[in-house]
Design a protein that fits this description.
About 35% of the residues lie in helices and about 40% in strands. It is built from 2 helices and 4 strands, in the order ββααββ. The two termini are about 20 Å apart.
Length: about 110
């Protein structure tokens, strides 16, 4: 599955727009990670525990979006975007969304 942030895929012509597809996950902080993050924050630098958690959340959201696009019979997802928001103290939603499309058959 091709996933791009642009509105088109170079060298391909969109045949049909199948509609909006999305994937999301909600992640909460972990007490053990919070303790290490507080210590790391005092010293300065990257908080690796949160970096890893957000990377995993992005990948899970993308996987869910791609599954939804596959179910529609899409060849690609164009105009993909990420969005995040806090749903409660200590928990955030990671969402990605885009437009599922099919391409013209190769000529």
């Amino acid at each position: 599955m091709i996933v791009v942030t642009t509105s088109e895929v170079h060298g391909r012509r969109i045949d049909k727009v199948l509609g909006l597809v999305r994937g999301n996950t909600i992640r909460g902080r972990h007490v053990g990670h919070d303790f290490r993050a507080i210590l790391r924050n005092m010293a300065g630098g990257e908080i690796k525990e949160y970096t890893k958690m957000m990377a995993e959340a992005r990948e899970q959201a993308i996987d869910r979006m791609v599954d939804e696009a596959h179910a529609l019979g899409a060849d690609a997802i164009v105009s993909m975007r990420f969005q995040t928001c806090e749903v409660m103290k200590g928990a955030a939603e990671m969402m990605c969304y885009g437009t599922a499309v099919t391409f013209h058959p190769a000529e």
